[in-house]
Amino acid sequence: MKTILLNNADKIEMPIVGLGTWRAEPDEIKNAVLAALDCGYRHIDTAFSYNNEEAIGNALKEWFTSGKGKRTDVFVTTKLPCVGNRAEDVEKFLKLSLERLQLEYLDLYLIHAPFAFKCESNFIPQLEGDGSFVLDMNDNVLTWKAMEEQVKKGLCRSIGLSNFNAKQLQNIYKASEIKPAVLQIELHAYLQQRELVKLCQQLSIAVTAYSPLGSPGANTHFNTKYNYSLSNFPDILGNFEVNEIAQKHNKTPGQILLKHLIQQDVAVIPKSSNPNRIKQNINIFDFELSAEELKILDSLDKGENGRIFNFLFFKGVEKHPEYPFVLKSRC
Ligand SMILES: NC(=O)C1=CN([C@@H]2O[C@H](COP(=O)(O)OP(=O)(O)OC[C@H]3O[C@@H](n4cnc5c(N)ncnc54)[C@H](OP(=O)(O)O)[C@@H]3O)[C@@H](O)[C@H]2O)C=CC1
Ligand SMILES: O=C1CO[C@H](CO)[C@@H](O)[C@@H]1O
């Protein structure tokens, strides 16, 4: 499996394809992780807030015990939740994730998002009477310093950021002793964020693309869970040009979208609970997209209009001073 060399002292390698796990129920995700490990995945992406770390931990334990692989063979990422984004809470949340995952250390710990919410004692975000999230005024530099301490303590091998914009990333970069190893952001054919990707490359920060297939089904989830819907939710897998290129290579549209990213040295973490699609999503190393095909895929970028995760499903989040995006009306 192709890997990306991270900028940290240990020269850790992050497999360029990982398994995403958001929106997967515990039983479903256990089987998905086992299926993924069996067909060659060595990188699993989760988060405290996905409520599936325990099931993933059970899958990993079963796989290690079976003798098919050992801890050092797998790259495991999880994330500090928005309800834990403050320096004094980093170690507590990291240790909780380790306990749930039944691991001694993480390969990568990310600050899930630059903004923070206050929470109830059960880690559920506090809500105002009108359903708005209660914002917490956090200092990301202080949170980062606490993240650095976790590397020094050996609880995680590398640390990074997710959903930070260029300015927020540069602030952390300048203030840091241990540089961010990874920036995980929404990236797919309709939201290509070229300037941010270029900045990461200049700073030797690896980029991981989340929702690389356009997160089909996410809008239903936003609606059910948060009573929020995105207008014009994109169907990237159904895009005409993507399907034409897929036919030429005898591949699926999903494989073309993933290949477009990995050919730019961007890591991808497609989520699937379906054994056939799990296999399909890693079976992307036996063909190359031509320069002309890459150009066609590059031209599908819709800029900010292609963004799915504006986080407005967290009612009131745009009022947080660390809200990372410039909102534009979608057309
Ligand atoms: N840092 C952050 O803030 C965020 C991180 N993430 C991470 O990124 C991962 C991936 O993003 P996600 O939003 O889940 O979206 P993806 O773009 O990975 O899409 C996942 C959806 O696509 C379906 N699917 C998977 N493979 C294929 C295929 N080859 N052809 C057609 N459909 C397919 C899956 O269904 P099925 O299971 O039935 O195959 C699932 O419904 C997440 O799971 C999570 O780990 C995601 C969002 C935000
Ligand atoms: O990773 C993510 C998946 O979706 C969540 C919302 O339900 C977000 O918290 C998030 O960033």
TrEMBL record:
<comment type="similarity">
    <text>Belongs to the aldo/keto reductase family.</text>
</comment>
<feature type="binding site">
    <location>
        <position position="112"/>
    </location>
    <ligand>
        <name>substrate</name>
    </ligand>
</feature>
<dbReference type="InterPro" id="IPR018170">
    <property type="entry name" value="Aldo/ket_reductase_CS"/>
</dbReference>
<feature type="domain" description="NADP-dependent oxidoreductase">
    <location>
        <begin position="18"/>
        <end position="301"/>
    </location>
</feature>
<protein>
    <recommendedName>
        <fullName>NADP-dependent oxidoreductase domain-containing protein</fullName>
    </recommendedName>
</protein>
<keyword id="KW-0521">NADP</keyword>
<dbReference type="InterPro" id="IPR020471">
    <property type="entry name" value="AKR"/>
</dbReference>
<dbReference type="InterPro" id="IPR023210">
    <property type="entry name" value="NADP_OxRdtase_dom"/>
</dbReference>
<feature type="active site" description="Proton donor">
    <location>
        <position position="50"/>
    </location>
</feature>
<keyword id="KW-0560">Oxidoreductase</keyword>
<dbReference type="Pfam" id="PF00248">
    <property type="entry name" value="Aldo_ket_red"/>
</dbReference>
<dbReference type="InterPro" id="IPR036812">
    <property type="entry name" value="NAD(P)_OxRdtase_dom_sf"/>
</dbReference>
<feature type="site" description="Lowers pKa of active site Tyr">
    <location>
        <position position="79"/>
    </location>
</feature>
<dbReference type="GO" id="GO:0016491">
    <property type="term" value="F:oxidoreductase activity"/>
</dbReference>
